[in-house]
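Q: How do we represent a protein-ligand complex in a form that can be generated token by token?
A: Start from the inputs.
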Amino acid sequence: MNATPNLNDLKPNTHAHGADVVLSGAEVLLRVLVDQGVDVIFGYPGGAVLPIYDALFRQNAVRHILVRHEQAAVHAAEAYARSTGKVGVVLVTSGPGATNAVTGLVDALMDSIPVVCFTGQVGVPLIGTDAFQEADTTGITRQATKHNYLVKNPADLARVAHEAFHIARSGRPGPVVVDLPKNISVGPAPYAPASRAPHPSYRPQSEPEREAVVRAVAAMKRARRPLFYTGGGVINAGPQASEALGRLVRRTGFPCTSTLMGLGCYPTTDRQFLGMLGMHGTYEANLATHGCDVLVALGARFDDRVTGRLDAFSPGSFKIHADIEPSQINKIVQVDVPIVGDAGRVIEMMLEEWDRQDGASDPAALAQWWQQIEAWRGIRSLHFDQDMTPSAIIRPQHAVRRLYELAMETGRDTFVSTEVGQHQMWAAQHFQFDRPNRWLTSGGLGTMGYGLPAAVGAQIAHPDALVIDIAGEASTLMNIQELGTIAQYRLPVKIFILNNQYMGMVRQWQELLHGSRYSESYSAALPDFIRLAESFHAKGMRATCVGELDDVIRAMLAEPGAVVADICVAQDENCYPMIPSGAAHNQMLLGPEQEGEVKVSAEGRMLV
Amino acid sequence: MTMQDETIVSAVISILVENESGVLARVIGLFAGRGYNIESLTVAPVEQSRHQSRINIVTSGTPQVIEQIKAQVGRLVPVYRVADLTQVGPHVAREMALVKVVSSGEPRTEALRIAEAFRARAVDTTATSFVFELTGATEKLDSFIDLMRPLGLAEVSRTGVAAIIRGPRTI
Ligand SMILES: Cc1ncc(C[n+]2csc(CCOP(=O)(O)OP(=O)(O)O)c2C)c(N)n1
Ligand SMILES: [Mg+2]
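Then emit the structure tokens for the protein with magnesium ion bound:
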């Protein structure tokens, strides 16, 4: 018989066979995971976490997904979290395991994704001695996490582990690291259920103050040119917040735009949606932002990719800003009505107040505003011409459009992740999302290599769904080793590479700012993606011209297993529309014809 | 639209924190990472029974930056309360300095005379040196040190500001 009991049979702190069951720290950790509703974790083993891996081996409540690099474990957990609304969980070893995870942690911090990352650590007596695989993980991750812990005392383990989940998911969500010295996971530790007592110092405010919402709605009623500016905070507030947003937008009749992180919180195919705003946003979204008289920001944070030149951002508008995190309000842009609270609660309260307060926004003014917006929309800023001669070169926008249309034909629930670069922007512009939690991208940190592991995480969470990574050839090589994970778990992920043989986004900026001197931005010595796929037991496909594109996409979608589709697209295509940095929203470039006309200011160059 | 106020103001920020390891590093790391000034800093346990420490930071910035500092510090998990005492109202801010003056003859007598005028105490005396202890507002300490400079000022050790609201209110 095992000296340590099987975890599945354990009822902690009960008398099994008349004796107190003593759990190891590792076993306590697993009990906490079960308490917290965790059914899957992403990780990679090593010396400092071996006791935890041993405890994992002896149970089957928690499934472990073995990634091929710790950074990928965090991105997979992020996508798992973003696509399910649950907390993503990571387990890595000390030293290099923890340092490899740091990029993922910062990514989750910037995009407010709830992740709990357990890191191994050398035993407490060895801390500070430069022991083998010792790194100061709590020191290194202090600014990379929402909060972190080093568990030095077994009595704290259960409380800290529960608390980590609470902090990761509540308020503005984010990553939390729990550093576990080896002697803590080996030695005995008391189990405790999650405490119901409020945390002594951490008390995020999710219920908005009615008075602020009343003032906001009064301004909305007076508005002649209103605009909703929505962001990732609405997605984080849960699907019911997106649903409420839909009601609010329809009830008010106002136009709605969204940030990159917010895509899907309002259906992007709806007439009232103006497309994404910001650097690569649509003409109508940016001009509406510039020209509106009441701007209602919900769960968005006035990122520099959104605002462009700050002193020219939405000049003259009355600004309402709702965010769960007080520090986001008046950080970049001074607002007239700050509202601290959960986006979903704010929207619900706005709906109540909208019905309670007399009057409605002037219908004539609103109609005129819509007329203006339709005129801007008439510019068709996302339009491109695809030569349909079968041998013609594929334009990347066309590839994304066809991917969207053919994916919709399958009728399957579809999740899209991306890497970072031009392809990411084309995906944001040309793929449509009518539901939240289906769009997985690295916004704040802009991490190349996010998309492939993110697709792993989304597919693990949704085994029957269609999961596509819209990738660039350069980015996807940054975590290409995850093809191994995809093979091991037979994940039918589709990797759709818009292969322009350049770090296209870098090339674009070099054209704009550096006299087209393509310093190190050519993707030299690329692998043969078909053979690369095959060596990882996946299907490889390639489209080299328009005539082949639909067939390749159809074959990819029909394939039951994983696919790497190498879509050879125009090498010189640039991403438009574009607001060059340092410019205002009404100074957009619509296409290459205008490129010669821009003079990016000295400050603009600094802002890049 | 609200206009931004660009004037630089000085602020005394008092922060009540859970007395746990790493909490000071969190606060200082936040200031360093976001480019906020720290002009002086004090930290000590104040509520042993409740494991609470108080950090006082003298900083400066535009009113918007000071607001951001408060909000960003308030986000830290082990922070109970944060207040800008300069905004809350009248407050007392004091620091202590130990000032070593090495001299003899006329400068030595002059140093002692000035110390008396400032109500500084000589806490260590040798034939060639004094260590003065002086408590007061930062400006008072500054001017005392300035006056000692030509009189053999050798070394200074200052505590940084401890501050508290006047009257019955607390942070
Ligand atoms: C880890 C990381 N390193 C560098 C960058 C800077 N960067 C942004 S986009 C880009 C090029 C991406 O190339 P590719 O994946 O081929 O996408 P494309 O722009 O060609 O669509 C680079 C290098 C980044 N975002 N992330
Ligand atoms: Mg590329």
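The mean pLDDT of chain B is 95. The two ends of chain B are 31 Å apart (CA to CA).
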